[in-house]
Amino acid sequence: MLPMPLRPNLLFPYHEEWKVPTVGECFRIWKKYQMMSHIKAHCLMVARVALTLARRFEKAGYPLREDLVLASALLHDIAKSYTIYFGGDHAILGSAWVMQEIQNPLIAQAVLAHVIWFFDEGEQAIEKNPCTLANLISYSDKRVQHDRLVTLSGRFEDLIKRYGTTEEKRRLININYTQSQKIENAFIRFGVDIKLEPGQLVRIKQERKR
Questions:
Q1: Fewer CB under 10 Å: which end of the chain, C or N?
Q2: Terminal C-alpha separation, the chain
């Protein structure tokens, strides 16, 4: 037995040689993995929310590369269609597919961690370091119900209705809700404006060419 839990190290330096796919390349990956149309619509809206918030990160003094944000958001549910039919964890499978397709660990970790963040303590804790790519993608995903902008509470009410079929599933959804609230509160403390309106969201070039 290992002496400690084996968890992925989500903090590492960025390397310029890591490929960041364009919007068109992300759409081709969608096609390869047969992403359903409603999941495409969801990912596009998550990308718009994530880009909008990324620009607010920069105003607050925490810049992120917009190409990384866009690609991570577009690919965060790449394995969702597959797992609907065949089961499995879409975040884990999706991160593996992203590494296979583009070999970019930063995007892969954002896909891996968009459902749950692995660290509650130390320098990687949300309260100490919230303005990361992974937290941005996770939070943006929780602000989009299907392809509509919603509040966190609205998103999780829907998740409970659709997926809370057992006590254990409801427990896990509530853990996710608590963590998402923690991310939102940390963003606010770090000076990020999280108030969003549909008319404020950034448009994505090539959005209609998928």
A1: N
A2: 47
